[in-house]
Amino acid sequence: MTAKPYHHDPNGGFRNPEGSPNRRISKRGLFRFISRQLRSRVVPDIPEGHVLDRADVEAGIIAGGNPSVTWLGHAAFILRSCGKVILTDPYLTDIAGPAQMGPKRYVPAALKADELPKADVMVVSHNHYDHLDARALAAYPYKEETQVIVPLGLHRFFTRRGFTRVVELDWWQSWSEDGLTITALPAVHSSGRGLHDQKKTLWASFGIRTAEENIWFSGDTAHGEIFKEIGKRHGPFDLALVGIGAYEPREIMKSVHATPEEAIKIARAIDAKRALGMHWGTIMLTPEDPFEPPTRFRQAAIDQDFGAENALIFQIGETRSLKAAS
């Protein structure tokens, strides 16, 4: 009998790669933190220019062409490469939680779900509410045309909602079609949409490769040694889409979300030429200043000899040509 990989927990469900950071807080402390954040309705002051006007969003998408990347907010992107359209983690509605409970976004997504272009492929990294948005999926108009790529355990979530082309991948497994290859890669995180399904479905990052680009999408992840292996096996990457927000308090978040400084370490470990910061400036998941991450991200790029010019920050709704970013 072939031994199961380490991340398949022998007690059921899944676990992070060996050597990953662990939380050092009681379940009661964690529950208090989550309860406080679910009730929070803090609306920060939004810096001028953080969100593009709708006309500028539409003009940018047209001008960006193919290849290009568009940030819809949080971890939602539209990627265009080699004639393909790839959509990532389309959390696009107001509340990240069930039945109108949960943190509420303080700026809207650049596009609503029913305004999205038809994607050739949709990748979803894990089942947390700010990444797997059931209400957005219900409104998405191209359920039968779009190929969905998800980690283990999420196939049924999509087919129950009308998607007909759904593939589950374990870490290091790939799906390929017509010059596009999507590879599920490790991440240091967790999963669960309630009290009784914690770590029952897998979480993942993704390598997205065409003849023109090799892009890495982090989903949600903390820092860990596993990223050196990702770099060796699937790098170099032209661009890393990497989370830089929701990192405080560290005793809770160090096992699930990277700091801006750790995001640069991750980009370096996977051998990425450039890194685009995401998972910030949209929703109050944690108590740090929500507009602090970009400053720390750029400074970390300088401090770690990655280059400030290689640490990209977008406005919500902004599109840039990948040719210009290469």
From TrEMBL:
Q: Name one Pfam family in it.
A: Lactamase_B_2
Give the organism, scientific name.
Sneathiella sedimenti
Q: What is this protein called?
A: MBL fold metallo-hydrolase
Q: Which residue intervals are annotated with compositional bias (Basic and acidic residues) in the record?
A: 1-10
> What residue stretches are annotated with the Metallo-beta-lactamase domain?
86-280
The record's region (Disordered) falls at 1-23
InterPro entries with a match to the protein in the record:
Metallo-B-lactamas (IPR001279), NAPE-PLD (IPR024884), RibonucZ/Hydroxyglut_hydro (IPR036866)
* Sequence intervals crossing the membrane: none
Among Gene3D superfamilies, the record links this protein to: Ribonuclease Z/Hydroxyacylglutathione hydrolase-like
